[in-house]
Amino acid sequence: MNTSYNGSGFIVAKEGNTYTVLTAAHVVSNETSKFEILAPDGKRYPVDSATIQRDEGVDLAVVRFTSTENYQVATLANYNPNNGDYVFLGGYPKLGQTDPKWNFGAGLMFDKELGILSTGSISLETDDSGLVSSSSTFAGGYEMVYTNISYGGMSGAPVLDTQGRVIGIHGSVEGEYVNDEAQQEFVEVQLGYSLGISTSTFLGIAPRLNVKNLLPVENTAPAQLSEQQQQSILEAILSIAVPQSQASASQWLTRGNQLWRLGQLDEAQKAFDKAIQLNDSALMYLAWYGKGLTLFEQKKMKKLPPH
Q1: Domain range list for the chain
Q2: Helix, strand, coil: what percent of the chain each, to 5?
Q3: Tens digit of each residue's pLDDT (9 = 90 or more) over 11-45
Q4: pTM, entire model
């Protein structure tokens, strides 16, 4: 993190007192900035910019810090998750002026092919917050698509499977910057899914990033969840509270997107309808697009056979 923005990351290796942290490259892209690492115990460690290493074409970077403290090293898992698998995302969003606080939530994974069909196509036009706009192709290594809610500051956060193993690195969310007439400023509007880079992609470039002393990588998928476990996770996803307020059109759009991801389709449609009613010309097409996504999902749900 620096004084103006923050990202997330996790420790992937330890050699002596030197820890290696994996994050998204755009988090540390400003070469003139001074960065520091905020450890889980609240201690802060300066980052020597000369130790930051990136790999061209993949939105990943490693940074290093030195400490005599004993911090946990992440367990990596290298396998292909299935469409519909439950996954978890944990990171440190910066909301308002307070220090970043841990945010953890569940979601569903899409396989790569379905992700491409669902999101259109994504390019690596990424800013410090991890926002990407639609363009021509998946790029920068972003081939993971999932429904977990994410916020600015969570770029570089681990995507975890049901055994707590890292299967990917979060880095982007679909959306656009638009002019919100009510707020009289350009604002970030999320509309779509969260995007990540797989552990396998990181492992492929790890030698070029001089990452050594990784823990043994696990290559097996997690054990199948019981019906009770699946139900518990599903209830957690659907019960996540999404804040309400006297909101502008862009805020209603973001709320609608969050509800749509969580599967709360009726509430999502109400949020998109509210954005449409506010008649913000710069946001109208996004509001109708969001409503279209919701109606499409509702239509699919009606076609599903009864259990």
Answers
A1: 241-307
A2: 25, 30, 45
A3: 999 999 999 999 999 999 887 788 999 999 999 99
A4: 0.84
Residues 247-255, mean pLDDT to the nearest whole number: 87
Distances in Å between the Cα of 226 and the Cα atoms of 69, 73, 237, 238 are 38, 28, 17, 19
Q: Which DSSP symbol is given to 306?
A: P
Task: Tell me the β-bridge partners of 18.
Answer: 15, 66
Sign of the dihedral through C-alpha 169, 170, 174, 179: negative
Total residue length of the chain = 307
CA 48/CA 35 separation, integer angstroms: 8
